[in-house]
Specification:
Elements lengths: L2 E5 L4 E6 L2 E7 L6 H18 L7 E8 L5 H11 L7 E6 L9 E8 L3
Parallel strand pairs: 4-5
Antiparallel strand pairs: 1-2, 2-3, 3-6, 4-6
Helix pairs in contact: 1-2
């Protein structure tokens, strides 16, 4: 059975199916890539918890940067956030984001106990 959490007209914040939680893309506020990344990761923490999962159970992360020159700043915050030994499979690319002030969007899939 598919479980949808915080479902709106366009999307759900979380979709759970067969032990995997698919977390919708998260963005953050702030002037710098570090500030936006930190806020984005705080939001992901809350959604992972709501899904019955955690950082240690992340399977995959997809990261979109508005500008690849922010790659080092993103990794500075990301590397401190990911628990040692629990890094997910990850992809990072450049994309035009929904609003011009956004620098990063992160999408996570994570396992949860059924």
């Amino acid at each position: 059975m598919i479980e949808r959490i915080e479902t709106g007209v366009r999307s759900s914040k979380i979709v759970k199916y067969k032990g995997i939680a698919y977390i919708t893309g998260q963005v953050g506020e702030g002037e710098t890539i570090q500030e936006q990344t930190a806020e984005c990761l705080r939001r992901l923490d809350a959604l992972l918890e709501k899904a019955g999962s955690s950082r240690e159970h992340m399977l995959r992360a997809t990261i979109w940067l508005a500008d690849m020159s922010d790659f080092a700043g993103l990794n500075e915050v990301w590397n401190a956030w990911v628990p040692e030994g629990h890094a997910p499979a990850r992809a990072c690319g450049e994309a035009k984001l929904a609003r011009p002030e956004l620098k990063v969007e992160i999408i996570v899939d994570a396992a949860y106990e059924e």
